[in-house]
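ligand=zinc ion
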Amino acid sequence: MMSFECECGNTTRFFATGDRDEQGREYVEVEDEDRLAVIFGDDSVLFRCKFCSYTYRLQKF
Ligand SMILES: [Zn+2]
């Protein structure tokens, strides 16, 4: 699965839950929410490291 790695060395993964939506896309969740916060905004998704508070932004185009 996908993994997240911050500059500070904090790593966590996303795991597949086994649940799918009506189009067959499988839901994923953060393995360890004490390590990574995922925040959804109107035009971007933020990934915030809970160790060093550094935030990564994934822009929606
Ligand atoms: Zn970090």
